[in-house]
Amino acid sequence: MKNENSISKILPVLFGFFIMGFCDVVGITSMHVKEDLLGNYSPEFRDTLSNLIPVALFSMFLIFSVPTGILMNKIGRKRTVLLSNVITIVAMFIPLIQYTFIMSLLAFALLGIANTILQVSLNPLLTNVVKGDKLTSSLTAGQFVKAISSFCGPFIAAFAASMLGNWQYIFPIYAVITLISTIWLMATPMPEEPVAGKASSFASVFSLLQDKTILLLFLGIVFVVGVDVGINTAAPKILMERFGMDSIDAGYGPSMYFAFRTAGAFIGAILLIKFSSGKIFKIITTVAFLGLIALTFTSDKVAVFTLLAIIGFAIANVFSIIFSMAIQSRPDKANEISGLMITGVFGGAIIPFIMGLTSDALGSQVGSLLIITISASYLLFCAFALKPRSI
C-alpha cells in the first residue's frame, strides 16, 4: 500500500515535466510568426523579429529564477508549481484572443515566466515524494517526459493545422493538458519539506561565479540551451530555405531533432551509470560540433534530417551533465548553484537573437548555423578544460 501511495504521488509530478516541454514549441511558433505576421516587413529584418519570440520566452529565466526560489520558501513547492500552471493556461489563450506579433511576444513572455517557475520548483517537489537511490532515476524519468513533450510539439501543431484548420489550436490543446495537470496535482496530497536556512539573494547566488569552475559550467548552461533552442528555431527555416518545404512539413525537422534527443536522454541515463560523465561529455560535444559543421555545408535533404538526428542525440545529456558537475563541485552550495544554473537558461534568449541578426545580415540560415556552431565550440572547450577533480 505504501508503494502504491508513493507511485500515486510521483505520477502527477512527473506529468508536470510534460508541461515543462511546452517551451520548445517556440521553434515552430517562430517559423509561423515569420510566415503569418512578418510578410510585410523588409526581408533583412524578418529573422531578427521572429527570433524575438524565443528571446521573450528565455529572457524570463534571467529575471525570475532567483525570485521564484524566494517565493517557493514562502508558499511551498506544490503551490509554486500550481502557480506556474495557471500562468501557462493564461499564456496559451492570448494568441487566440488576438494573433498579432506583439500579442505573440506577450504570450511567450508569460510562458517563459511560467516555465521558469516550473523548472525551479518541480525538481524540488519531486524530492518531496522520492527519497534515496530512487531520486536520480526519477529525475532522469522527468527529463525523459519533457523530451517526449518537445518531440510531440510539431506533431500536435500539424494535427491542429490539418484536422482543426489552424496550427494555432495547439495553444488550447496545451491549455487543456495543463489544466489536467493542475487538477491532478491539486487532488494529490503531498508532504512539504520545512525550509532550512535563509533564502538565497541575488548577491549570494551570483557571487558563486567567482569560482572558476562554476563560471565555466554556468556559461556551459548558457551555451547548451542556446544550441538547443537555436537548432529548434533554425531547423524548419533551413528546410524551407534549402528545399522549398512549406511550414507544416518543415516542422518535422525539429521533430527529428527532438525524437533523437529523447532517445539520447534515455540511453544516456543508462551509460552515465557505467561510464564517467567527463568522458561522455567530451565524446558527445565532439559529435555535436562535427555534426553542426556538416549541417552548415550539406545540401541533401536526407543528410539534413540525419544530421539533426545526430546532433539531437549528442546534445541530449549535456545540460544534465553540466548541472550535476556544478552541484558536485560545491555540494555545500547546492541550492544556490541550482538557482544559478537555471538562470543560465536565458542563453535561449541571447543565442537566437544573435542568430537572427546574423542570418538577416548574410541573407541565409548559414548565419544562424554559424552562431550555433560557435556556441557548440564553447561546450567542446568546456568538456576538455575541466580538470579531472571537477568531473
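[next item in queue]
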Amino acid sequence: MTTANAGSSGAPQHTVDYLLIGGGLASATAAEEIRTRDANGSILIVCGENQPPYHRPPLSKEYLRGEINAEGTYGHGGVYVQLPQWYSEHHVELMQGTLVTALDTSAKIAHLSDGTTLGYGKALIATGGSPLQPNAPGLDLPGVFKLRTLADATAIREALDGGGKHVLVVGSGFIGLEGAANSMFRGATVTIVDPVPRVWPTMLSPNLSIYLQAQYTRRGASLYYSHTLAELRAGDDGKLASARIAPVGESEQEPFNVPCDIAIIGVGIKLNAEVALASGLAVDGHHGVIVNDHLQASAPDVYAAGDVAGYPDPVMGLFHYEHWDNAIESAKVAAANMTGGDLAYRHVPYFFSDQFDLAINMLGYPSGTAQVIVRGDLPNDKFTALYNEDGILRAALMINDDAQMDLLRELIAKAARIPDDPAKLADPTFDLATLQ
C-alpha cells in the first residue's frame, strides 16, 4: 500500500490499486487472479473476521467431523484459501477485523469502520452474506449455534465432543443437512425441523425428496417437515435443554417438546449489501448488488462477485448464486476485468454436498416441478437425475455418479433438447453426447 497526499483537503490517508471488500473466498480468488495479471499493483483485502480468507464448504463437512483442522489450505488438511504467508509473499495486504462502510465512488475513496479512509483504483464488493435467524425465543441460550464462520464450526465441533448429544437442526438446506449428517457421524441423536413440506422442494421432485429424507430416517434422525421452531428452552443450569415444535398451517396437532442440548440454526442468509447501499449503488432486495455481464456495478471501477452479486443469467434473468463455485468463477472474471480484461460472466450454476456416503453434485437450474428422468440405480445410491423443462435439459443431479459432469455442464450451457420420448434418457446405454 502506498501513502497518498494525506495533507490535501479530503485526501485519503492511503491509496491502493485494488481494494477487495470482504475477507472470503471471492476476495482471495480475486487477489490471486489480479496478481497473475498485474505483478506490481497494490492489493488490499479488508476482512471483517480476524482470520485469513478460508473456504466455507468444509466447515459443515470435514472440519465438523474433525478430519481436518484450520491451519492448512483446503485439500491439504485445513480450510484456508492460501497459507497466511502467501499474502506477504505476493504483496497482498490483509486488513483484518474491520469493515468498509461506504465508497465515495466519485472521489474513489473508501470509508472504513475504524475511521480510516482509503483511495482506490478499482474496488470489488465480495461481502457475502450473514445467517438469518428464525423468530423464536431462546436463540441466545448457550448451546445454540449458527454455522457460517470458522468460529461457529469450531464451537459446534467442541460441543459435539464426547458423543451422545441431542442436536436440533432448524432448516434443511445444505448447511442444515450437512450439519445434521455430520452431527450423527459424531454420535449425536438428530431432530430436523423445517416449515417446508419436504426436503428441497424447489429443487427436487417429490420422489427425490422422499429418497433424500429416507437417508436420514433410516439412520435414526427424526424429521418434522411442515413444522416450525416455536421456542428454545433452558434447563435448570441455564443452558439449552429442549425445543418447542409447532405444526404450520391449519393442523389439529398440538405443539410438542423435543430434548436438545445443541441447536444448529441453518435457515439461509441475508446478503451483505450494506456497503453498496451506503455507496448509492444499484441494489436488488433479493439478489444483492446489481452488476452487468462483466460484473461491473452501477459506478465506474466498482465490481461485485460471489454471493452478493446479482448478475444477468441467460436462463434466470437477474440472478445470484450462494455457492462455492460461483464465488471462485465470478471472482476470476471480475479480477480479469479489473485488470483490463473484457470477459462476460457465463456460468452454469454448480454445488456439491457430502452427506453420509453420498457425494451429491448438482448442475444447472433445478426445479421441483420439472420432469425428472433417473439414469442409474437409485436404490443403491448411484444415479443421475436429468431435469426436463419444456423439452430442454436444464439441470442434473448426480449421486455418487459424476463421470459425465463435464458433458452435462456443456449440455446445460447450450440448452440441449430432450428427445420427444424423454424416457429414452433413462436407458444407461443412451449416449448423452448425441443431445443437441
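[queue empty]
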